[in-house]
Amino acid sequence: MTRPGLVARVLIDSPLPQLDHLFDYSVPAELAADAAPGVRVRVPFRSSGRVVDGYLVELVDAALPGLTDAGHADAEFHGTLSPIEAVVSPARVLTPEVWKLARRIADRSAGNASDVIRLACPPRQVRVEKAWLAAQAAEPAIQAQANQAQANPRQDEPAVPTPGLSEARFSEYGAGVLEDAIAKRRRLAMAAVPFPVALPAGPSIGHWAKTLAELAVETLEAGRTAILVVPDYRDQDQVQAALDVLAPAGSVSRVDARQPNPDRYRSFLACLGPEPRIILGNRSAAYAPAADLGLLALWDDGDPLHSEPLSPYAHSRDAALVRQEQSGCALVLLGHSRSVEVQRLVELGWLAEVHPATSRHPEVTPTEFQAADDQFARAARVPSAAWHTARQALKAGPVLVQVASPGYAPMLACQGCKKAARCTRCQGPLGLASAGGTPSCRWCGALAADWSCVHCAGRTFRVATVGAGRTAEDLGRAFPGVRIIIADGDHPIQQVGAEPALVIATRGAEPIAAGGYRAILLLDGQRMLGRESLRVGEDCLRWWCNAAALAAPGAAVMLAEVGGTLARAMSTWQPESFAAAELADRRQLRFPPAVRVASVSGTEADVEAALADLAEIPHVDVLGPVGMEAPLVRAVVRFAYGSGDQVAAALKAQVVRNAARRRRPKGAAFRAAPTLRVRFDDPELL
DNA sequence: AGCACGCCGACT
DNA sequence: GTCGGCGTGCTC
Length: 686
Prior knowledge:
By secondary structure, this protein is α/β, with parallel strands linked by helices. It has 19 helices and 30 strands. The strands form 8 sheets. Strands 10-11-9-12-13-6-14 form a 7-stranded parallel β-sheet, sandwiched between helices. Strands 15-26-25-16-23-21 form a 6-stranded parallel β-sheet, with helices on both faces. The longest helix is centred in the last third of the chain and has 18 residues, at 644-661. It is globular. It binds a DNA duplex through residues 7-10, 12, 14, 16, 18-19, 22-26, 43-49, 52, 77, 79-82, 660-661, 663, 666.
């Protein structure tokens, strides 16, 4: 009893690469009413427990074979179709726009669409969904009216009182520049105003958060949805605080994976409604469903938290770029510093640069190694000039000290032979979390109570590197009587007052000071630059710029132990000049983002087979393979952006073949043969 | 993942 | 001749 002529094309919710395409089913007449594109369905499947979950992606007329969603017409299936077993609920959770985005993101990184959809569609919560469906059904007209009134403050209701904030919207960027960007749906690389701003009767926030909120409200007033993507929760809180002041009540949905599941699903469902909204969240927000998307904005795209740790590992910048291209919305990449990726897009002309109209910026002074004359300041490795600056500034208000590492002494050495102290169990480095504590291993956590040095049998430690705790101790002596506040991952502090205090923070954990810091000391420059990574310079510049942007206007920012291009980029406040130089280097070296990269790992035979398929594709070269652990080898494939689709398609085909073929050697209950693994655009790769 | 199909070695 | 080993491929 099926309705003839109607074919449901279903994406199976499975991580298996060989199932990552659409399967055709017939639609039984009794399900036809609910069987709309985007609903969750249960379908029979000749294995894995007979019935599996999936999404109904599209409905097509069987009489018109081949007329499927553009581009993804899988080879037509000829055979008898099984009927859909059930429509899980009539909620159309996978919108066509999000499906297209998920498919494209998966395709460009040889991944699974269902893995991307898992980020986009949170787990179903039956009670929440029933309540939402009931609300939809009951008086939809009144509902829509109410939402319309909420979403559009220019109508009847008076706008939320926002003295001094909304009147001067965007004035920092020159009249009309950003209004125009929203209206004409431009793509912008935008430099944030590098100072904090005080909300009326509220906390201080980064000016960038106000800009983001204003862009969103502008979009909302134009009748479209804005998605704001920020890397972490402290950033979300700042934007939320600005939206509380600027945006109409009820117009903001916050989506992030840290909310309790029912809350998360509730805000997800709210995004499905027909009325425009402001959607604020972390990297997964880039995939949120949106009614008439007008703006996609990212804050600080260089932050590694924008990089998805789950397969297929897409960066939210890439998700945003793809979605912008598909939907034609405005795109804003806002930051204090500039990532090399954004610099590339600027140089290509893909993004237009926008700077604040006033050239006011933090006054950064690079200081040399000249030690302070105060012995305690010297112990705290504070340069002389910085010490004097801090002492002066502490009369007026809070002073920020940025350090590289948390803890007391993150790295210990042997007092006798000066070599690094190692864990007797696992060879990991030993460190000290607090002043009076017992040293412990940073890898395995084991306490080193009865330690002796493997080199010289010594039994006492010396401090090899200094953490925030030790710096606090030293600075306490150098500035007697001053209140000391420590902020790091273990002691997160959002906000400090305007009273004098020394705030010692690890990079990225700096609290915001009411009215801004009166001085900022960026210590540990050399240590931060000592990390071995392609991105050190870029990362350091980002950490320093983000900290310097917490200064009050006119306050001094002292950058210790750093010279050269980085120091110049800081003191002229032109991080894009560093990004441009860096990009030129990467082009020379053929490193990302001048090219894209993919790592291919597995057994030697599997990797060789995969690489063989890439031989014909232009602008591809291969580094390795080199041996990894046990039977594994890894090769790095570099390719031009234009060859990306071919490379991804070829590697995906290999992954599918490999997944279908692999079997465990019978009898011996060893683990299964290692699979071929492919990862695109890994920021840690080179 | 599971399950059927299929192509070679010992059996009623 | 056929039963059944497990390697190979498919699941609408």
